[in-house]
Amino acid sequence: AVARLLCEKRFSAVINACDAGREGELIFRYVYDLAGSRLPVMRLWISSMTDEAIRNGFAQLRSGHDYEPLAAAARCRSEADWLVGLNATRAVTVRHRSGGSQNLYSIGRVQTPTLALLVERERAIRQFVPQDYWEVRTQLETNTGGGFRALWTRLVPPLPKLTRFGSQAAADVVVQRCAEHGKLDDALGPVVETLEQKKTREPPPYLFDLTSLQRTANRRFGLSASRTLEVAQALYERHKLLTYPRTDSRHLSQDMVGELPKLFRGLAEMADYTPFARPLVQNPPLPPRRVFDDKKVHDHHAIVPTGKTTDLSRLDRDERRLFDLVARRFLSAFYPDAEFANTEVVVRVGPAAVSKLPGAAKPRPAKSATGAGSEEENEAMLDTEPPPPDRFVARGRIRLVPGWQVVAGFGETPVEPGEGEDATLPILSVGQKLLGRFELISKQTKPPPRHTEGTLLAAMETAGRQIEDEELRAAMKDSGLGTPATRASIIETLVKRGFVQRNGKQITATDTGMALVAALPVPSLASAELTGSWEARLSRIARREDSREAFMRDIGTYVTEVVEAVRKAPVDRAMAAAVAPQSQAVSSPKQALPNPPARTRAQSKSNPGTTATKSTAATKKTTAKTKVPPPQAVNGLPCPQCKQGSLLRGNKGWGCSRWKQGCGFVIWFEIEGKALSEAEAAELVTKGKTRKSVWSLPGGKKVSARLVLNLKATREQGAAQLDPS
């Protein structure tokens, strides 16, 4: 329809109203070229959908020729990704296949550096050698009975602070000498040496962009990045409750200020938000500068509610939880800062004067096999006996004014007395004597934690910050690896291709993924620097400081060098012996079923009973266990819904060959977090149900259930329904 309209002679021009960015420009150019249109092009450049923004945009239309450099940069990015990914994938795959292996080792500018992040972390964990260390802690009490805990800390400027002992003997010395002076009436006993109290303010957090929303949803609810995007998209498209979710901005544009009363009124009509939104309706706040910043809004503004009201009970659990996150984050942005009273107390045991003992200030760094541990793991340790006096530090934090935290749902949490930042401290004064009990705590250093989807998204977002080249680092400052709209799919692709796997909330590199990164003869394929160098040049092309021809010529040279390097590289034994990556479909059930591969369609026409893909080991195991004979794969079976088409395997599930004619039958590869084998799907289609097996429901509950065929289910739900009865 669009192509036909672009070629109608009754029009004198066409307005490009795609996203105000490089990729939006590319989408328009592709459609325009595909249609073969000759219409003059005008450009509408807006970042928000308010009436004011749209009117202003139409009043300031510019010629499409002004955006030719941006379009050239967009085409360069698209074609370079394709050329490098295609050729590197073919070269690495062919080089490391052995015998009759059909392993496919896919390479991508974003995909492979993301895999490298996980591989680097996995290597650090596997190579990590734990190291023993000791801490000295004390339980201190006032003469009125108030108590708190504190940690021995070396406080000898200009030397760095230390809290760990690498020698048990040195720590024992500290415990013994402190224990000799632990009484209230001891002249050298515990005394409050310094007491620092100050009030701090904590402003509301920035609004959500897609990546921060995905990270928060993963941390709080365990939602995958793809599931969060899917739910946010449903709240945007179907329910009209949220603004466009695929955004990288955490700010709003100034034209949104006039929309605030409408947004506040809409939220005030929902009972969950009435207490927080109604005051904003009655006393409209001044728009905060940290929220409204046109310079920080690019293609789209931050994710916020649209002002539409609804009965929240009509949303499913994930939709309601995600909407609640966005609504509370939006409302809290217009509330005052939270205020805290922070207290740091230093307690001295021993004489006030500092003695100078030989070798007392010779700490050694904690040993890390890779140097990739966290800051905590790399903290230095003290091997020698420190000079007296000994000092113990405790910190406390009390919330004075809740401010925005009430809206965000952060209630008062009782904290047990301790030495943490939020510990509750008794009333103290400088010079106050205390009673102390001292103990030695034995610990071990820990390896860096494995990534969750939340931490991996953060690592992708900030990739390139450590690049030494200033220009490349600046080019990646606002991009990182991938975009908010593509990062979730990159993770899913790595899982699907068997390079990484999910273990609960953790994501780990598989042996196949580790072998792939280790075998790459061109380090830049697995480095964020490749993206940085591209982004720097693409920015120059968009500014007319570089040319598309020169960039693509260099890409051709780079591709040739990559292929030659792979050709000459020795065959990696680990790669050749690696198990072929399995297709672990972890699709979002609300995406349309993609077209099946052309080969599969051809096979289904010539031989409907032919299996398009080999059964995986997991499928064989399931088949043997349930004794369901798989004489025929799902592909080629007649569609049970329309009775006319046959079932084909797509990238996300099995669907009807007549899907273009409107048959919406589909069985998704994954049901309730469990991958469905071909044998189970065939049994479901032919018998209407599967045999019972154990299923894990949300919350960790395990039930014995079967799948039943439901032809009345929506396409989003899929025809396979779990029946625990």
Task: Please outline the helices and strands.
Blueprint: H1 2-6, E1 14-16, H2 22-35, E2 41-43, H3 51-59, E3 62-63, H4 68-96, H5 111-127, E4 132-141, E5 147-152, H6 168-179, E6 191-202, H7 210-221, H8 225-237, H9 260-268, H10 274-282, H11 317-332, E7 338-349, E8 363-365, E9 380-382, E10 390-401, H12 404-408, E11 435-444, E12 451-452, H13 453-462, H14 470-475, H15 487-496, E13 500-503, E14 506-509, H16 511-519, H17 528-542, H18 548-568, H19 573-577, H20 598-606, H21 617-626, E15 647-649, E16 653-656, E17 666-668, E18 670-671, E19 674-675, H22 678-687, E20 693-696, E21 702-709, E22 720-723
Parallel strand pairs: 1-2
Antiparallel strand pairs: 2-3, 4-5, 4-11, 5-10, 6-7, 7-10, 8-9, 12-14, 13-14, 15-16, 16-17, 18-19, 20-21, 21-22
Written account of the structure:
The strands form 7 sheets. The protein has a 6-stranded antiparallel beta sheet with strand order 6-7-10-5-4-11, covered by helices on one side. The protein has a 3-stranded mixed beta sheet with strand order 1-2-3, with no helix packed on it. It starts with a helix and ends with a strand. The longest helix is centred in the N-terminal third of the chain and has 29 residues, at 68-96. The chain has 725 residues and is α+β, with helices and mostly antiparallel strands. Helix 2 (22-35) crosses helix 4. The chain is globular, with a radius of gyration of 31 Å. The chain has 22 helices and 22 strands. 35% of the residues lie in helices and 16% in strands.
